[in-house]
Amino acid sequence: MGTVVMYGSVSVDGFIADEHDQPGPLFDWLSSGDVPLDASGEVKVSQTSYDYTRPYWNQIGATLVGRHVFDMTDGWGGQPPSGVDHVVVVTHRPEPHGWDPEAPFHFVDGVEAAVAMAKELAGDRLVEVAAGEVGGQVLAAGLVNEVRMDVVPVVLGSGKRFFGSVDAQHLLEDPDVVIQGNRVLHLRYRVRPRSA
């Protein structure tokens, strides 16, 4: 089954959005270059960021998000973001009224069950877990294999934390990827297995 990756753009002080769920300049790097990152041509990054990000996006078989993100994005109109095949939504509530049952979205109660479903859907491809509360819950459950961060040179001061409300220590290995793009530093850490 696929590797589980916790991912997000983050400020240097560890936030993925401000207190009003606004990312502010955290996604500026996605318009800081001249190389289209997706078919829309609206997202343009530096060649360095493209060479790192595009192959990663191509490996994602399923993305796991919380209901809050799903609701904020209006479920991406039933079309998974960035060409991902499936989205698994962690929620205690059913899909929205009138939701298209053919849309490749799966509503699951609990992070363990959501990760299991995402792995099944992804096959040998990656499972991407959105940073924030759900990502922190998946990390706390010991289900994250690696952490990828796009660190943006901004201090937000407060807001939504990258690791959510995780309140226990989790050790990561030394970064095995450190790539500087325009207005972003791409980092990848393997999660150190817990001691038995």
TrEMBL record:
One of its GO terms (biological process) is riboflavin biosynthetic process. InterPro entries: DHFR-like_dom_sf, RibDG_C. Pfam families: RibD_C. It comes from the Bacteria. Residues 7-172 form the Bacterial bifunctional deaminase-reductase C-terminal domain. GO terms for molecular function: 5-amino-6-(5-phosphoribosylamino)uracil reductase activity. This is Dihydrofolate reductase. It comes from Nocardioides iriomotensis.
